[in-house]
Amino acid sequence: MKQIISKTLALLAICTALFSFTSNPGGEGFEIYLNSKLLVQRFGEGMNNATTLELSSASATDQLVIKYHHWVRWAKTGS
Predict the structure, then answer these.
(1) Cα–Cα distance between 58 and 67 in angstroms, integer?
(2) pLDDT exceeding 70 applies to what percent of the chain?
(3) CB-based contacts of 65: which residues, under 8 Å, 6+ apart?
(4) Left if phi > 0, otherwise alpha if psi is -120 to 50, otherwise beta: which for 51?
(5) Domain map (residue ranges) of the chain
(6) Spatial distance between the Cα atoms of 65 and 37, rounded to a whole number of angstroms
(7) SS3 sequence, the chain?
(8) Contact call for residues 54 and 64 (beta carbons, < 8 A)
(9) Rounded to whole angstroms, what are the CA distances from 19 to 12, 28, 63?
(10) Which residues have CB under 8 Å from 24's CB, separation 6+?
(11) pLDDT confidence of residue 79
(12) Which of 14, 20, 37, 49 has a Cα at 20 to 30 A from 59?
């Protein structure tokens, strides 16, 4: 009986660990603007690519805007 309980608990722990690393369906992305001019736009897999921005030519009065987007795709049910 103890062996059944311990195996069940081990299976539960493994399942919990595996399901905690699954990704949610959906996506994310970001856009970076300087004075309403789009400098960088990345969505989905493109977010993994590193980008360097040179802001040395920007003045103290310039406006830097970073927009982050996150959305969820809901599964379709029915026919």
Answers:
(1) 19
(2) 77
(3) 32, 33, 34, 36
(4) beta
(5) 25-79
(6) 10
(7) CHHHHHHHHHHHHHHHHHHCCCCCCEEEEEEEEECCEEEEEEEHHHHHCCCCCCCCCCCCCCCEEEEEEEEECCCCCCC
(8) no
(9) 11, 21, 42
(10) 72
(11) 54
(12) 49
Cβ atoms within 10 A of the Cβ of 53, count? Answer: 11
Structure tokens at 76: 């379709």
What's the predicted TM-score (pTM) here?
0.58
Phi first, then psi: give them for residue 5, nearest 5 degrees. Answer: -65, -45
On the question of pLDDT at 21 being above 80, the answer is no
Residue 46's contacts (CB-CB under 8 Å, 6 or more residues apart) are 29
Tell me the two tokens of residue 60: 């103290």
Phi and psi at residue 46, to the nearest 5°: -65, -15
